[in-house]
Amino acid sequence: MAIINQATKELQVKIVYYGPALGGKTTNLVQVHGNVQTAQGSKGKLVSLATSSDRTLFFDFLPIEAVAIKGYKTKFQLYTVPGQVIYNTTRQLVLRGVDGIVFVADSQYEKMQDNVQSFANLEENLRSLNLSMVDIPYVLQYNKRDLPNAAPMEYMEFLLNNREVQVPSFTGSASKCEGVFETLNMITRMLLHKFINESQRRAA
Ligand SMILES: Nc1nc2c(ncn2[C@@H]2O[C@H](COP(=O)(O)OP(=O)(O)O)[C@@H](O)[C@H]2O)c(=O)[nH]1
Ligand SMILES: [Mg+2]
């Protein structure tokens, strides 16, 4: 779980945006960077390591600072992974130390197999880190809802959110900043709850 520095009262939380190539992970971070309220917290620079064609090569990284819990300065570190199938070693590296995950699915019908494959790849990579989707809070974002070939929500829920305990899911059009902050707010809230619960349990 998150890195806590009791001396400086700092909480560091790592959130990874995962999903198939071209689903909109980088766009989510670009929108957060462009629209986050600087009055409430400070944001750092968005660092992108991209190829010339704008594809994420290693990761995108955006630090956001906020006072989310009384007395604790909280640093959220947002990362994306490259979605292309061949970059799996990179995805495994970026997942190290992950606290929470946003799975960005592409709503276009023809991308359903990519979505399912990417989700399975996420589970497999977590397993290789001795983690599982049961321990790591995550939310789903069904992105690109603005496109005419978007599959029905129910179908995507059936494919990606069909477990005993369903996780929160959101529709999005990241390129119009729709659903971006709803998604981010939910995962940060889930992580802060987890942090508070764990520290209460430790104190009890
Ligand atoms: N129509 C539409 N295009 C989007 C949306 N989100 C992202 N895109 C576009 O999809 C392409 C891939 O997005 P990107 O964020 O680079 O995907 P990534 O590979 O997951 O990081 C870019 O051309 C984006 O502008 C969306 O909600 N609707
Ligand atoms: Mg990207």
**Mean residue pLDDT:** 91
Count of helical regions: 5
The proportion of strand residues reads: 25-35%
Main sheet specs = 9 strands, mixed
Q: What class, by secondary structure content?
A: alpha/beta
Ligand inventory reads: guanosine-5'-diphosphate, magnesium ion
The CATH H-level superfamily is P-loop containing nucleotide triphosphate hydrolases
Find the CATH topology: Rossmann fold
What's the CATH C level? Alpha Beta
Helix content: 25-40%
CA-CA gap between termini:
18 Å
Description of the molecule:
With 204 residues, this protein is of the alpha/beta class. The chain has a single domain, classed as Rossmann fold (3-Layer(aba) Sandwich). 33% of the residues lie in helices and 28% in strands. The chain has 5 helices and 9 strands; from the N terminus they run E-E-H-E-E-E-E-H-E-H-E-H-E-H. Strands 1, 2, 3, 4, 5, 6, 7, 8 and 9 form a 9-stranded mixed beta sheet that branches. The longest helix has 24 residues. The chain starts with a strand and ends with a helix. The mean pLDDT is 91. The site of magnesium ion has 4 residues, from helix 1. The site of guanosine-5'-diphosphate (GDP) has 18 residues, from helix 1.
